[in-house]
Amino acid sequence: MTKYNSPFKQQVIEFYLQNDKNRLFTQRHFQLSKKTLTRWIAQFNHNGINGLAVIGKKQKYSPEFKLTVIQAVKKGQFSAESASLHFGIANSGSISQLVAHL
């Protein structure tokens, strides 16, 4: 179960946009961490409202896909956070774990 659902994320982004993109004000209003809000804004900017969708089940990725992601991060093409946006992986922590194990 996810901590925040899609309608809540959308509400946060709408508030952020309506308040001159003031991150600190939005963070405090919704009691969110800077990292969480920054990730949601990046997801919204990259994929629009669909970027805020909550995936109901744990995603499974093929070994080939994992290798592609790991290689891109190791080559310096992406940080773990930007790779998660680019490759559509909900949690950048998953990428960090994959990279650390190699």
TrEMBL record:
Pinpoint the Insertion element IS150 protein InsJ-like helix-turn-helix domain residues: 8-52
Signal sequence interval, chain numbering:
none
Under the heading Pfam families, the entry gives: HTH_28
Q: Which GO terms describe its molecular function?
A: sequence-specific DNA binding
Q: Which SUPFAM superfamilies does this entry report, sorted A to Z?
A: Homeodomain-like, TrpR-like
**InterPro entries, A to Z:** Homeodomain-like_sf, InsJ-like_HTH, IS150/IS1296_orfA-like, Trp_repressor/repl_initiator, WH-like_DNA-bd_sf
What domain of life? Bacteria
PANTHER family attached to this UniProt entry: INSERTION ELEMENT IS150 PROTEIN INSJ (PTHR33795)
- Similarity comment: family membership: Belongs to the IS150/IS1296 orfA family.
What is the protein named?
Transposase
Species name for this entry? Actinobacillus pleuropneumoniae serotype 5b (strain L20)
